Amino acid sequence: FHAPHTYVVDLAIPYEKYRSDADRIAYHQRLLTEVAATAGVNAAAISTALPLQGETWIDTVWTLDDTRPQSQRPNANIRFISADFFNTLGIPFLGGRTFRDTDRNAKVAVISARLAATLWPGLNPIGRKFSGGNDEVLEVIGLVGAVRANADQRPAPVVYKPYWASAPADVSLVVKTSTSV
User: Fold this and answer.
1) What are the angstrom distances between the C-alpha of 18 and each of 21, 26, 173, 178?
2) Rounded distance, CA 35 to CA 42, Å?
3) SS3 label, residue 143
4) Alpha helical stretches, state H, 90-166
5) Residue 89 and which of 8, 80, 148, 166 are 20 to 30 A apart at CA?
């Protein structure tokens, strides 16, 4: 990733005030809209984990035709993000697209090139389906470059899901500005 003039703030919205998923999603939407409209801000995004923050949520993933026992299937880091996450952090988009508001009722994901190479070696992953730990079937709509979860390790396979699929209370707000502060 390449993120000059990028700043991060960790946010924990109070659960007592934002109890429902809809309340937390609406809060994040307002936050992103207002921050992105601020003078000098080029892009803003939220994520449940950033590159180099370690492996915080790991789940087993598999293609729909994978007959191996679950213990032999690959693992991937799971991240819940907003649509402008890749642009904000300078993570290269390699194919497909990011999330849209029209995806709100769809089971979609953007995956890292490392995960694509693990699940479908040599094949284009866009439009393919895979499953995860809770047997949820997701369609790949985008492919992005690999990033490291830990500085001293190879890039981890990553599944990026839209933040509204989880409605997290704790996120990192990432803001890319036109100049350094």
Assistant:
1) 8, 9, 17, 32
2) 10
3) strand
4) 113-119
5) 166
Q: How many angstroms separate the CA atoms of 175 and 10, rounded?
A: 12
The residue behind tokens 């790949």 is 140
Q: Where are the alpha helices (DSSP H) in the chain?
A: 21-36, 85-89, 113-119
User: 152 CB contacts (<8 Å, ≥6 apart)?
Assistant: none
**CA 119 to CA 125: how far, in whole Å?**
8
Mind listing the pLDDT tens digit for each residue in 67-89? 989 889 999 999 999 999 999 99
**pTM of this structure:** 0.91
Q: 18 in the Ramachandran plot: left (φ > 0), alpha (ψ -120 to 50) or beta?
A: beta
CA torsion 172→12→169→141, rounded to 10°?
A: -10
pLDDT tens, residue by residue, 110-140: 999 999 999 999 999 999 999 987 789 999 9
Helix, strand, coil % over all residues of the chain, rounded to 5: 20, 35, 45
Find the largest Cα–Cα distance for the chain. Answer: 53
Q: What one-letter code names the amino acid at 62?
A: W
